[in-house]
Amino acid sequence: MDLQTITYIVVGFTFALYIGIAIWAKAGSTKEFYVAGGGINPVANGMATAADWMSAASFISMAGLIAMSYGGNGGSVFLMGWTGGYVILAMLLAPYLRKFGKFTVPEFIGDRYYSNTARVVAVVCLIIVSVTYVIGQMKGVGVAFSRFLEVDYDTGLYIGMTIVFIYAVFGGMKGITYTQIAQYCVLILAYTIPAIFISLQLTGNPLPQLGLGGSLADGTPLLVRLDQVVTDLGFANYTTGPRLSTLNMFVYTMSLMIGTAGLPHVIIRFFTVPTVKDARSSAGWALVFIAILYTTAPAVAAMARLNLHETIQPAATGENLAYADAPAWFSNWEKTGLLKFEDKNGDGKIQYYNDKSAAGQALAAEKGWAGNELKVDNDILVLANPEIAQLPNWVIALVAAGGLAAALSTAAGLLLAISSSISHDLMKGVFRPDLDEKSELMYSRIAMAGAIMVAGYLGLNPPGFAAGTVALAFGLAASSIFPALMMGIFSKRINKEGAIAGMIAGIVVTLFYVFQHKGFLFVGDWKYLESLGSNWFFGIEANAFGAVGAVVNFIVANIVTGMTKPVPQDVQDMVEHIRVPSGVAAAQDH
Known about the structure:
Blueprint lengths: L2 H22 L5 H6 L6 H12 L2 H19 L1 H25 L4 H8 L3 H33 L4 H17 L2 H32 L4 H4 L10 H11 L13 H16 L2 H4 L8 H19 L2 H16 L15 H7 L4 E3 L16 H10 L6 E3 L3 H9 L4 H39 L5 H24 L3 H4 L3 H20 L5 H22 L4 E2 L3 E2 L17 H17 L6 H11 L4 H6 L1
């Protein structure tokens, strides 16, 4: 059976599964729509949280970033940042927010800071973060469809929107939760099975994590061979020295950690379990389920990079691959625009090397090459790796289903966070406090449908500042939502004026820095504000700036609090109640 037919069958089966679950788990109340009834088992919630969290960026992009942009040590920023955030969630946020016992993050901020204005500012921050993040998921859906199902990008995006519409609008958090459990199973199998195959091919070890440190058939350690292959072609040594400076590594990791802990679609998952203990437990289970993919990613990155180079320039022959002899996967990915070949010297062979390095220029002078002729998008490595390794068609089809599962699961969680903030926090919380449950549920579904339409439009017409990096969403969450939650839980002193000023200052300074750094800030005659330079704050990259924005948030909130009225006593009592573990008061009475 040909690849396209198998892919249609596998992807069609998974879509039918998601729709079937949505019909079975249709939400019948606002509690089911917002928090799945509050009775989800912590293990199941951990699995759903893992799927909610492991987006197209984790499934498709992370290994590519490690392999192509950051290399061995530099890629650890993503592993440490994205997993470390769950430790913060488990220890510092999830139990307390669950004890608060409401539905959404803006609802906590509104009640804690005794202000509808604070609630509205939190909603605005949440929407900015979520919309920025969801654009990448919609792009992932379009790319996966266009390559594996051979439909155009727009059609693929419309299909993805329809699937999300069915299980998110009707099922709400209840439908999304059980769908995400199924999606986790699909995406983790799709990620690990090819990795096991390739690890066996290269090293004879079925565990990719161990295969990464293993040896090839000729006895050469895999990483030694990879270092030799890339450095011979003028690329940086794979295993030594991160691309980022020490300061950038620290700030970037911190931004990803606290950004993870501040992502609203992740936090809302901890409102779905029965008890405070379950909230902490489900965060731990989520970390376990996430670790399966994240510990596999470095092996996938290294093996994919080695396979790519060995295909283009086999070490056995020392000859560059002739374009006319390129395998089918090469032309398939050329159609997507993510792989591009330009025969600069007219010899009909593919020269893939770093023509900007001294070693690359020396090699070009020796060989008569006219410049690097191959552009490889980071995002193709995970998706193309099974094809490069010539794995069975069913494995390639499974990878397509996994990439779609990762993108759809996170998109659904983000869209629910957006719709909940509109229907529950704005409509019910601010504009229509007298809204009955049936009407609120209707508004929730309308808001979800509207959010899907907007996400689809942005997926079709992605703004450049957001489409280039998922890290922007983490920076915005780190600079706005995370500090407000931390101060709300652990400080009885911070008042509404301080919190509002802090959130606004944090997100504005982060957006300003990102826009300036990436070339989207225009002034006067619409010329880019070059006078500020590309790295004007201690050389910190834009993707890492969320941690600095968080510091600004904390500082501004404390300064403004010191200049305004103190927090009312009843709010201080509420904070004290949230912080005290359940059962302590009863134990003290005895």
